[in-house]
Request: fold
Amino acid sequence: MFYFWAKYSIKPTPNQKMVPNIAVILTDPQQRIIWVNDDFTAITGYSLGEAIGRIPGKILQGPKTEPEVIERIRKALQQRVPFRDQLTNYRKNGEPYVCKLVIHPIFDRNQELINFVAFEVDGNLVADETHIPLMNLSEKYRSSSLRSIDEIKLYDQLKQLLETDKLYLNAELSLKVLADLLNTNTKYLSQVVNHQAGLNFQQFINVYRVEEAKRKIVNDSLSNLTLYGIALQCGFKNKSTFYKVFKETTGFTPKDFVRSKG
Reply:
């Protein structure tokens, strides 16, 4: 089984309660998880890092998961057709819950299977999911959702590029440099960062720089460096920006962070 989760905002009508979390799981054609959204974590307790590369059924199913539903899902995946059902899943803490889900196969322009995407709600909280568009198979899976998948893929590529090559250490790193490396344009990349991370580009890059600074601050081999010296190594251009961003990101000044680790 598989899943992909992306934040989907639904406004309630005057007589309708706000819809609870909608988990989204994106997998590759082999049903290995590529990405899950924050709602997936809220429902299941599993973080993105814990979910990536795993098959959803392997981590979410348990003793009371209905074998007949598992078989129906298996056949739908094998036949590559949209599917809706519900079954008993288990949260990370071992608590069972009713999982109501919809699964869609995603194909490229050549009709090659490239992903599966699933939308899930917690049936313990949602008695009737039919008013939720994403949970209704009668509504065609829309192109806007497919564009969201493209955003997710680009965002994942961006993170991999930053984490592998540590480009954020370069104080001159720009949105255009990253856009060129990812074969996209600055407007779209900025939109992806904003939608997926909830930050503007500079804030997004500074999060990486602060995490790098935290690692270096507690590294004994760098104890000869001043905090500003470490900041320069992490891509910050000036001391005031470093102190401001560090406090906003961690809740500590760099000096208080050092004391907390002492």
Summary: Strands lie at 23-27, 33-36, 83-90, 96-107, 113-122.
